[in-house]
Amino acid sequence: MRLSWFTCAVVGAVMAAPSYYKNEGDIPVLNAHKITQLPNFNDKRPIDFDQYAGRIPLSVDGVQLFYWLVESENDPKNDPLVLWLNGGPGCSSLAGMFTELGPFVVQGDLSVKRNTYAWNRKTNMLFLESPAGVGFSKPLLDPSHYNEEYTTDRAYEFLERFFDMYPTYQHRPFYIMGESYAGRYIPFLVHKLVTTPIGNVTLAGFAIGNPATDDKVDGNALMDYYYTHGMISRQNYQASVKACVGEEIRKCLSSHDQCSPDCSAALKAGIIEVDKQKLNPYNIYGDVCLLENGQANALHYPLHATAIIPRGDIGPCQDVFTKSYLQLNTVQRAIHADGDHVPWSDCNHNVTRLYTRSTSALQLYPRILASGLKALIYSGDADSVVNFIGTERWIADEGLNLTLEQEWEAWFGPDKQLAGYAQQYTNLTFKTVKGAGHMVAAVRPLHALFLFECFVFGTQACESFIYPSDGLELLTGETHQSAEYGFNPVGYRPGHVGYSPGGRISDTERLSRDGPPSGGAWLISGIGIVLLVVFILAHVQSFRRSTYMRL
């Protein structure tokens, strides 16, 4: 039977609209913001969730804030909603999306793969570029508008508009998370939501990674971190302690005019020892991207996130690839950031330069914590910029003076490896993440995912979830296989493990996806095989699998 053009149009419209948005919200706007195709996507694992992106206009100064909503892979109709904010000030949350915890990873050829450790597997993730002038949000504002109060008010208004536009998220658990200068953004926003609630928003908690919270306490921990991590000499550390009594280290590093000549000289000597241009202060054990290195002066302005960020398993050049990808015209059209071409960058240094920063967010915490929200502060212990020493101090005796309820203890990941350490205070949990840098999820993706889901769903729930397996688990003797993600030890190379619906990834699939190993790798593999055959022929005995792995 031939359908009429009218019937086809109706069916097409119904299919185009998200099923659970029928009769809710602004359907034309939702359809206009739906991402129907992601340029350069090339992965065996399909995109099996809906995405929406675009600018939401606000009521003042022509502000339009850009967002990217990634729905949960699990149950988008009922799963929690999490707002993610990167810091700066002036840095884009799309950087966090593509280089840390979002569903996609940009490759060197600007193709896009799925991220095995994406946080949207059980939650709806909302990435907001704030304030205006950052990323695709516009316009660049008058300098008087770049401060905590104005930024908070615009983010608050954005949430009002967003929840009206997407009523399906009303009255379900809502969390706010971020990192770095979000240590200011989030307490200011949460405080406003606590004191002036939005009627249809059910704020359940907040979490901040390596939070830039208090200039004095955070700053005065810098030289302690450098010395205890073998980054400066004992002589320089002692000279700094002697010369900088009563000084605020952060101010001295930012402007030598704000401290004594002796303190300035001692700190400068220490920084010269530390900063050899190839050091990444955001992850002292990680590599820097040699394609574009902006680290040379980073320690003089520690909160200005102008440099290449460590990417751990993802790779130190991920920022460069992401920037190039989001500058493509085809991408900007696909995510509804079209119009005038935007030279997207992970950080807008004009915003950073114009922003008037508060000196502390500590004064906001008593009211926030009294509200009963879940609160998590976590620190990658390889970050020297906003390090765990300063963070622990402002939580405890040099700031909030919270009551310690549970002593320092280890916590473990789903791979049974030590993931870090934790302390429980009244109404707040503090955790370190072992080996992670400033961007925790980029360097320790599995442990970050576990930390995140335990925070949102509770420890009992997250311990029952199935998590991705990787090469480290095989090498260390943990051999369980994920029901969702496969791992093939043959030809394993560090990076995101591919997806195979049937379990393990075959050699053919791996070669098709990654290409053959380098010539050197083939040579080493060939020698290894020959030696193994000779060894077997010489001894003529069976080997256990564990013995094989040791070879």
UniProtKB/TrEMBL annotation:
The chain crosses the membrane at residues 520-540. GO terms for molecular function: serine-type carboxypeptidase activity. Residues 1-16 form the signal peptide. Coiled coil: none annotated. Keywords: Carboxypeptidase, Hydrolase, Membrane, Protease, Signal, Transmembrane, Transmembrane helix. InterPro entries: AB_hydrolase_fold, Peptidase_S10, Ser_caboxypep_ser_AS. The keyword Transmembrane helix applies. One of its GO terms (biological process) is proteolysis. Belongs to the peptidase S10 family. This is Carboxypeptidase. The lineage of its organism: Eukaryota, Sar, Stramenopiles, Oomycota, Saprolegniomycetes. The gene is Aste57867_2418.
